[in-house]
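Hi V.,

You were right to ask for the full record rather than a summary. Here it is.
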Amino acid sequence: MKIGGFNGKFNWQEGFGAFSYSRSQIDSVIKNLLNQEDHHKKNNI
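Predicted structure:
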């Protein structure tokens, strides 16, 4: 399966992750975090 330019097996991440973002993206990051549950209910891979 090809996902976003990555050829390989897709798996949901278990545990924790670390991500970086710029100060100008803070509002967008917070909005996305708060909307995760609804987003995943609508978008299945």
